[in-house]
Input
Amino acid sequence: MEVPKMKREEALALLLEYNSNDSLIRHAYAVEAVMRHFARSFGEDEEYWGNIGLLHDLDYEKYPDQHCSMTKVILEERRFDEKMIRAILSHGYGLCTDIKPELPLEKVLYTIDELTGLIMATVYMRPDKSIRELEMKSVLKKFKTPKFAAGVNREVILSGCTMLDRSVEEIIQECINGMRERADILGIT
Ligand SMILES: [Fe+2]
Ligand SMILES: [Fe+2]
Output
């Protein structure tokens, strides 16, 4: 039987049921925005990709030590579609799961998750705190400075770019574009 398609409002309600930390919620929005942006360019379902972005770190606030495994438990309990669970868990490939990103949406999620954090950190460094005029090369410079936003795993981003067969420059630019479209919900201009 076909599982009814999840609406954004439902994904958002679930995110807010498990999360109250502003920066974690903002991260979910950033990943959602970029996922929707890429879905459009791949000609795929924007809401589906976006919901996966919204929910990818569902368990992180409450169960940081069981990241990904608790998301699996929660989503299985709620009878989520297996494909959606797989896609969400694949973002933790090599870190907290052994589920390798295979589908385009999985590869994109894996690649841009950490990158959205680097871009947000770069925006916060700007006097205008705005993404409007943020250039790819400014983010690239921060990418190449390991001490800047040191928690951002550059290796994951690079291996994701390899999976997608795209340059890191291109992916950074697309990520900026996606986040710029939703600056309003990211708390930036
Ligand atoms: Fe995660
Ligand atoms: Fe994340």
Q: What stands out?
A: The mean pLDDT is 97. Residues 56-57, 67, 91-92 surround fe (ii) ion (ligand 1) (CB under 6 Å). The chain has one domain: 8-183.
